[in-house]
Write a structure and sequence with these properties.
The protein is α/β, with parallel strands linked by helices. The chain contains eight helices and seven strands. It has a seven-stranded mixed beta sheet with strand order 3-2-1-4-5-7-6, with helices on both faces.
């Protein structure tokens, strides 16, 4: 996917696969994605946040998980894909969480929210899709309150044998074929391994977080380094 016009291409891609996204997400991760989100929410809960922004919320899985485990919180789930949000809104209504979760269109690089508004900002599998990573992180920092924090769940690159080799084979060959077969969208599941490959994970991503202004940045690796939770605090 070319960098120029990436945002529009990402929006169109997720609109195309929205109907199959949840099934594929859980199927292709063997269901482990539920555990990954649970760990992020456990970290988030320690902060006792009241106002939370979940960017690239997609169909709302992370926002819903947060709402269930932090019942006194209020969450805005924002995304650029209208079709994904439609499904997310239905899930929120079905679970009777519409008083706690607000689903709305939102561009990660042009957030419409006031400075220092949220206690925490979360992203699950979304930052690698940003057209301008540093701009998106700066916007997240801007809307975070002093003493607030960011929590980012994202794919990373395992380095240990044989996990690295199995992971690369699965992402390069198995996942695109399965994804194409179910979603009928060839570009979506060839884009996924490309986006993970091009994403500056690990220490490189922590540098981007620091550049945006966050302090005490850290990386928590999970499942042999397949994914990581990155976090950072805003200190005035």
């Amino acid at each position: 996917m070319k960098q120029e016009g990436k945002k529009q291409q990402v929006r169109q891609m997720f609109n195309n696969i929205a109907g199959k996204y949840d099934f594929l997400n859980h199927f292709l991760s063997l269901g482990i994605d539920h555990y990954w989100r649970k760990v992020l929410v456990k970290m988030l809960k320690k902060q006792h946040p009241k106002q939370i922004l979940d960017i690239a919320t997609g169909t709302g899985d992370l926002a819903i998980s947060i709402a269930k485990r932090i019942p006194d919180s209020h969450i805005i789930g924002a995304d650029i894909s209208e079709k994904m949000l439609e499904i997310g809104q239905k899930k929120v209504l079905k679970k009777k969480l519409d008083q706690q979760i607000k689903i709305e269109l939102g561009d990660s690089e042009q957030l419409k929210y006031a400075d220092s508004f949220f206690d925490a900002v979360t992203v699950a599998f979304g930052v690698r899709n940003y057209e301008d990573l540093d701009l998106g992180l700066r916007e997240m920092y801007r809307v975070t309150k002093d003493k607030g924090a960011v929590y980012i769940l994202e794919f990373s690159k395992p380095t240990v044998f044989p996990v690295k080799q199995i992971y690369n084979f699965y992402f390069s060959y198995i996942l695109p074929s399965l994804g194409k077969g179910v979603s009928k969208d060839q570009s979506a599941y060839t884009y996924l391994p490309e986006s993970v490959k091009n994403f500056p994970d690990g220490e490189n991503f922590l540098k981007h977080l620091s550049k945006a202004g966050y302090k005490s940045v850290s990386q928590k690796k999970m499942t042999f380094g397949i994914v990581s939770i990155y976090s950072g605090s805003k200190v005035s």
